[in-house]
Every structure is written in C-alpha cells, then in structure tokens.
Amino acid sequence: MTVLFSAIFPIIFIVIIGATAGKKLDLHKTTLSKLIVYILFPALVTDSLYTTNMSSNSMLRLLLGVFLISLILYILVSWLRHYFKISTAIYKSLIATTLHPNNGNMGLPLIEFALGSAGLERAVIYMIGSSILLFVIMPALLAGTSFKNSIQMIFKLPLVWAMLLGIILRILHVELPFNLYEVLNLLGRSSIPIALIVLGMELRSTKFKITSLELISLNLRLILAPFIALCVGGIIGLKDLDLQVLILQSAMPTAINTAVLSTEFGGEVNQIVRTIILTTIFSFLTLPVILWLIN
C-alpha cells in the first residue's frame, strides 16, 4: 500500500496545481495538448529507446504482448458497441479508456518500488509499446478517418519519427554531442507533469458522476485487462519478471493522456476524465491484489 501511495500522491498534487492554475491563469488546454502530443512525448519515446539495455528478444516479446492485449480489448469494445448500440462518441471514449493504462507516471514508479530496477527497465518497454498505440494508432481511430487518411495522419505525427530516431541511435551506438541527450531527457520528463496539469484543468470543469459506461470501463481496465495479459503472456512464452511486468502494467488505471488526445482529436472528454478518476480510485483496491497474485 505504501508503494501505491508513493506513486499516486505526487500525481494528485500536480493535478490540484493544474486545477488551480486553470482557474486563476489564462491557460489554453488546446495549446498545452499540442505541446505534449507533438514535442514532449516524442522526446520521451526517443530518450527511452536510446537508453534501454534490454535484449531485443525480451523487448519484442513484451511489445507483442502489449499489442495483442490491446487488439483483444479493441475487439471486445467493438462487440459491446454493436450489442448495446453505443453512439460513436461514447464508443471512441470506451476505446481510449480501455486500451490505454496509466503505465507511465503511475506504472513506472509502482513497478520500480515493487520489482526493482530490472522490472522498471521492462516497464519502460511496455510504456513505449503503449505509446505507439496511444500516439500513433489512437489519433487515427479518434479522428474517424478512412484507412488512407489514417495512414497519412500517422506519418504526420512526430512520434513515429521519434521512435525511428531512438531505434537508429541505439542500433548505431551514436554518442550525441553537446549534451543533446540531456535535452531529450529534460523534454521527455517534462511531459508527465504538463499532462497532469492538463488533466487538472479538465477536472475543474467536469461534473463527476458514475454511470454504467464508467463502470464498464472500470471492469475492462482494472479486472479484465490483467487477466487477458496473463493469458497472452503465457501464450507468447513470457515468464518470471517479464510476465509480472506485463500483468502489472496492464492492470493500471486509465492513462491521463487519453484526456489529452481526446481534447486534440475527438471523443467524450468528460466521460474520459470521469473514468480516469474512477479507475484511479479503485486501483487502490485492485493493484494490491494483483501485486500479491503475481508474487
């Protein structure tokens, strides 16, 4: 429980700052969202890929696990849309809140405390795979464009080029001159608090309530997703620490960055913010159980 408090209290504190700043200062959420999507998160991904020491085999298996889990959840949400006749806006919100766990600013510190530095290294790779989905695939899904336009949109986003840059730097063992590594590191690290500030600004204008849609998202995100991760991990041959990280990262509450993307590309922002709050609160109950089970 101490691990969870250590991971969540800094998040809550920065969210409160964002809510206060949104009330007292003339800040524009759209501008901050663009800053995160187009500059800060690409820097974070490039930095992570450039500095990781994991083997290629472990990296690929973890990434495969992330993509398979997301695919299964996507198929399930699509079936729910068809069965319950869900509107397009709500469907987009369910996709965003179900597919994307908060594996960065909550998952990374939690896994570092629970599983050590080796676990943290694997958690970063999971975050990269999730970032590929969140910032490369999800904008196209939220925008609702055709396949051709979706591909064009993907390659217009800087994150795909940031991933390629990080991979090239790592493979070629490039030593960045003039402390440019520090530039990447500082930009990447700044993305988390700014995303939390945007969330706080959203919370200030959101009336919190629990509906059946939030409850559906909660069950998909906190209960079903880690179970799917256990099954997928077993199928693709993950064991020990790799499997533990896959399950634990998949059990995180909804990522705050889904609110950022929804503001930028479309979706029911208020529902997404309510889901973020609800899943984060209930993760205090589910994550200790998951930690106990994987150990």
Automatic annotation (TrEMBL):
Superkingdom of source: Bacteria
Keyword vocabulary terms for this entry: Cell membrane, Membrane, Transmembrane, Transmembrane helix, Transport
Record's bilayer topology term: Multi-pass membrane protein
UniProt key word Protease: no
Bilayer-spanning residue ranges: 32-50, 62-84, 123-142, 154-172, 178-199, 220-238, 272-294
Family: Belongs to the auxin efflux carrier (TC 2.A.69) family.
Annotated protein name in UniProt: Transporter
Organism, as annotated: cyanobacterium endosymbiont of Braarudosphaera bigelowii
